[in-house]
């Protein structure tokens, strides 16, 4: 199977599109660059398809290398027949390859290897041939050394047969299919842990069973967490008699003494070798599937969070609220620069609200504040009520900002580098304010796992999780684009073609030479060569630069074409940009070249119409129910406004303005069946919910979006 044929198993597109995409990837082009600026070559494949091609290329490479390793290992042992070589060469399934290699894999000392050392393999072959009846007299010929009896000889032969059965590729495939289709996963509580306080959160799994193929990802991960924490034992099983019958039908061809010995070996092989290996394999496969499902949920949530609505370049007063330690206040300029910081104490125990009001009014006026951001942690609602009592000289928008992960940022190396002379409380307040101005620019500084928008993120494969989340961040950053003259190192690090070292070099160049005046000036940055420039240039913006196209998503390689369009229309470049009538009059087919096709040219015209347009929506003010301050203030039947703050496979969590978020189960999202929560709600969506149940002792709230 060729690489292209292998990829076509998972990506539905033509071989030409795959071939072109492979070439671009091998030429060190990034996925954002390929999907945006090489559409005509790839047949308009999106980022997901290109990502799948890249992953399939890696899988293919792993398979080829594993084949070479297996062939070399078997050949070294002198067992590589032409038939075996062909079987390995034509296999493109890693599990099948391992089954083919299993009989030749070097093993530690086993029952079968001991039996072979005692010369019992010929007896095992005689039994498997199933042509002899007088096994007792045949077995007696093998009684020597430690093999003192015929029974010991037969037992040793059975050990060898059990190993052969275990290594039989057909049998393993047959049983593997049964585990895939019919396996039951079950759990039982460990009696000594049943009364533990910590065990209570896993109470539903104390006596649990479910089809492994149908178990929801969040339930399997919870089940495995309960096992890892030592509260339950988990088993994966299929019907034992069905499995034994299937093996027997495969290898037992006669009745009699030989069949009797083989059947004993079958039972031993299944219990000791096949069932433990295949049940573990089935569980690991189900775990991988659950991991991928959970990671997909996390990735979707992270993408929505990163692409959340920005307020934009406004002067912001940000508040990290608190009681005893006070509310930390920072004033930020239009670019998120720290202008001033202060601490006020409007809440108990100090309750110096008069002085706090005076200071807030003074800061708002002195620093020409446009909006106020309040973190949604402790004392958030009380701080919101306090702020809304202040009579400002002009209308101010007040936003509640999700501060999850702000404390992680404030103690990080990035925060220390940005604010070496300020403590963590000031840095945390700055992060809250900057999140309102531009969520993407601020959240890229935080490990995505600390943002709190996933499910079971600590239980899934951490390498898979990191790779997927890094991909999401990269796609999000490049979908929006970054201001070359204000972007942080963290933001530049995710720009197509740049990375950490070049991001550092860009900042050093900017610090030494001042603001970039054009994209082409990037070429002067040390170690930023032609390939990096090609990949990065269109994803950075130069606002107010020499060339107006530098503040657009038009790639520099297409500037000459745009200039020709303007020249043909007998107008200047400035007159063409944003001139919808003129742009609509352009016939794109007249400008097709060897490198620029119709799809790319149409993208250029769309960009010329609205250059540099931020794809994100604008931030909107949201108000919680003023009568709800704690869980004691809500009751069954009450309808409340809320904000979706986390999405899982089983529903979504909604912030209703108190410490505890409420759960809207998937069955309560709308009338009728819902297969995907993301079809109904998005992160940060404003919703109305009805209270179904309140458990104050467990701090649990059940909500519904079905209001009738």
UniProtKB/TrEMBL annotation:
Q: Which residues does the UniProt record annotate as the domain S1 motif?
A: 637-706
Q: Which GO terms describe its molecular function?
A: mRNA binding; structural constituent of ribosome
Q: Which GO terms describe its biological process?
A: nucleobase-containing compound metabolic process; translation
What SUPFAM superfamilies does the annotation carry?
A: Nucleic acid-binding proteins (SSF50249), Ribonuclease H-like (SSF53098), RuvA domain 2-like (SSF47781), Tex N-terminal region-like (SSF158832)
Superkingdom per UniProt: Bacteria
Give any Gene Ontology cellular component.
cytoplasm
InterPro entries xrefs? HHH_9, NA-bd_OB-fold, Ribos_protein_bS1-like, RNaseH-like_sf, RuvA_2-like, S1_domain, S1_Tex, Tex-like_central_region
Recorded protein name is S1 motif domain-containing protein
């Amino acid at each position: 199977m060729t690489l292209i044929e292998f990829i076509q198993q998972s990506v539905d597109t033509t071989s030409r599109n795959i071939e072109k995409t492979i070439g671009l990837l091998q030429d060190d082009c990034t996925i954002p660059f390929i999907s945006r600026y090489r559409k005509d070559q790839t047949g308009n494949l999106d980022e997901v398809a290109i990502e799948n091609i890249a992953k399939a290329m890696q899988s293919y490479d792993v398979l080829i290398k594993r084949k070479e390793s297996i062939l070399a290992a078997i050949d070294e042992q002198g067992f590589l027949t032409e038939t075996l070589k062909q079987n390995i060469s034509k296999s493109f399934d890693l599990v099948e390859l391992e089954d083919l290699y299993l009989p030749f894999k070097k093993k530690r000392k086993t029952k079968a290897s001991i039996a072979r050392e005692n010369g019992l393999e010929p007896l095992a072959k005689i039994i498997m041939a199933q042509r002899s009846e007088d096994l007792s007299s045949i077995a007696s010929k093998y009684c020597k050394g430690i093999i003192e009896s015929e029974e010991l000889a037969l037992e040793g032969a059975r050990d060898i047969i059990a190993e052969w059965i275990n290594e039989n590729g057909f049998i393993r495939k047959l049983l593997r299919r049964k585990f895939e289709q019919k396996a039951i996963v079950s759990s039982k509580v460990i009696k000594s842990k049943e009364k533990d306080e910590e065990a209570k959160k896993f109470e539903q799994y104390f006596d649990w069973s479910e089809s492994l193929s149908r178990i929801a990802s969040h339930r399997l991960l919870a089940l495995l967490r309960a096992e890892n924490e030592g509260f339950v034992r988990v088993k994966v099983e299929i019907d034992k008699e069905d499995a034994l019958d299937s093996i027997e039908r495969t290898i037992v061809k006669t009745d009699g003494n030989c069949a009797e010995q083989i059947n004993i070996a079958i039972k031993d092989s299944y219990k000791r070798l096949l069932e433990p290996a295949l049940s573990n394999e089935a569980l690991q496969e189900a775990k991988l599937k659950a991991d991928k499902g959970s990671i997909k949920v996390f990735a979707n949530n992270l993408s929505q969070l990163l692409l959340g609505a920005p307020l934009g370049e406004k002067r912001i007063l940000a508040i990290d609220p608190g009681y005893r330690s006070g509310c930390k206040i920072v004033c930020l300029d239009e670019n998120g620069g720290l202008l001033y910081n202060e601490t006020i104490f409007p809440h108990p125990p100090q309750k110096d609200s008069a002085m706090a009001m005076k200071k807030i009014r003074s800061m708002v006026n002195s620093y020409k504040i446009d909006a106020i951001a309040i973190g949604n942690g402790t004392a958030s609602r009380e701080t919101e009520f306090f702020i809304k009592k202040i009579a400002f000289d002009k209308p101010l928008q007040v936003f509640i900002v999700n501060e999850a992960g702000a404390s992680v940022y404030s103690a990080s190396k990035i925060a220390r580098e940005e604010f070496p002379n300020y403590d963590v409380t000031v840095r945390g307040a700055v992060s809250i304010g900057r999140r309102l101005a531009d969520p993407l620019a601020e959240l890229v500084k935080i490990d995505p796992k600390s943002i709190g928008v996933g499910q079971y993120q600590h239980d899934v494969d951490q390498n898979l999780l990191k790779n997927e989340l890094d991909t999401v961040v990269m796609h999000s950053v490049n979908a929006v684009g970054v201001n070359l003259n204000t972007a942080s190192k963290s933001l530049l690090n995710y720009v197509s073609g740049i990375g950490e070292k070049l991001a550092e070099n860009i900042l050093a160049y900017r610090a030494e030479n001042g603001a970039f005046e054009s994209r082409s000036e990037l070429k002067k940055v040390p170690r930023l060569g032609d390939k990096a420039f090609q990949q990065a240039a269109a994803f950075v913006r130069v606002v107010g630069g020499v060339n107006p196209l530098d503040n657009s998503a038009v790639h520099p390689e297409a500037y000459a074409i745009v200039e020709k369009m303007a020249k043909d229309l007998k107008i200047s470049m400035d007159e063409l940009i944003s001139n919808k009538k003129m742009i609509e009059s352009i016939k794109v087919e007249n400008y097709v070249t060897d490198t620029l096709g119709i799809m790319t040219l149409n993208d250029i015209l769309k960009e010329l119409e609205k250059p540099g347009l931020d794809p994100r929506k604008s931030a909107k003010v949201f108000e919680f129910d003023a009568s709800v301050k704690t869980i004691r203030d809500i009751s069954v039947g009450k309808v409340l406004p809320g904000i979706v703050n986390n999405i899982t496979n089983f529903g979504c969590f909604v912030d209703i303005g108190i410490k505890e978020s409420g759960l809207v189960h998937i069955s309560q999202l709308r009338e009728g069946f819902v297969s995907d929560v993301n079809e109904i709600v998005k992160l940060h969506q404003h919703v109305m919910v009805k209270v179904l149940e309140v458990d104050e002792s467990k701090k649990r709230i059940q909500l519904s979006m079905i209001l009738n």
